[in-house]
Amino acid sequence: MDLIKQCIRFREMLSSFIRRELRQRYVGSIIGWPWPFLQPLIMLGVYYVVFVQLLDQKLDQRWNEMIVEALGVDTATGDIFNVLLLCCGLLPWLMTAEFLVRSSNTIPENGNLVKKVAFPSELLSISLIGAYAINLVVIFSVFCGITWLTTPYISNLIWMFPLVVVCHIAFLLGLGYLLSTANVFVRDVNQLAPLVINLWFFLTPIVYVKESLLFGNPDATWVWVFDVNPMAYMVDLYRYTLIFPEEIRWTVEGGKRVNVSVADVWQLLGVFALISFTTLFVGYHTFMANKHKFADEI
Are 188 and 296 in contact (CB under 8 A)? Predict the structure, then answer.
């Protein structure tokens, strides 16, 4: 509640910081503002050529055949689905990775502002995540347009997409507060963050679908990795709400395919929301508890 009050009280300053962040992203760029629209187009093209055409990297063959059969499409459309699955997980992950690396250094980078007694330094991370959120919504708008134009993969849960974005933002903001606080006192955090994020990337089903790994493998003992990984919940929610139609909204339990109902998606969203807002609560209060020490440490 205090955080919301601060945002309202300093809304003009916050808006100015977000505009500054958006301008800085494309300063000196020849293309400029159209980049958010071009990024998903370029990404889809590159991954289709590299992963599907050159490296022949697709979903598990059995899983891919079930998808093609369930939707009644040809294998070429199934290949496009591979790229859409990859990008639907990769787009929010790129935002996540870039934000976490940058947020860890927000206090030292803005030391001249932080040393001013009356400056609300908690707004720095909010302005950063605000700029990234705007960029993400624009990119996903283009992504959805491409999806609807090129494939029959239209999710009937797209109305849940804004809720997923809100939970995603809350989770990142909480982590950002924790990282920025830790980096003030231990500068190694800024160097370790990219390494940990790279490891986290491979533990999250982004360039693969966890169901294709679990299908036909009832004795998998490493499934707990996905159960304790908040980003795995996030990726599933983005895929369920954007590109998975009801016909192929599946998961795997005991090595067998089971349908995912709307109630199951709500439950998944509830778990992710609990994790996200708990992280935000802990991160914000940790930041505020140590805020008075920042000026002396930087």
Answer: no
- The end-to-end CA distance of the chain, in Å, is 28
Contact 233, 272 (CB under 8 A): yes
CB 121 within 8 A of CB 5: no
Cα torsion 22, 23, 29, 32: sign: positive
pLDDT in tens, 204-244: 888 777 766 666 565 666 677 888 899 999 999 998 888 87
Domain layout of the chain by residue ranges:
2-297
Strand segments (E) across the chain = 250-253, 256-259
Question: Measuring CA to CA, how many Å separate 191 from each of 106, 118, 130?
Answer: 14, 30, 24
* DSSP class of 222: -
The secondary structure of 168-179 as a DSSP string is: HHHHHHHHHHHH
Q: Distances in Å between the alpha carbon of 296 and those of 102, 117, 176, 185, 253? A: 21, 12, 21, 10, 53
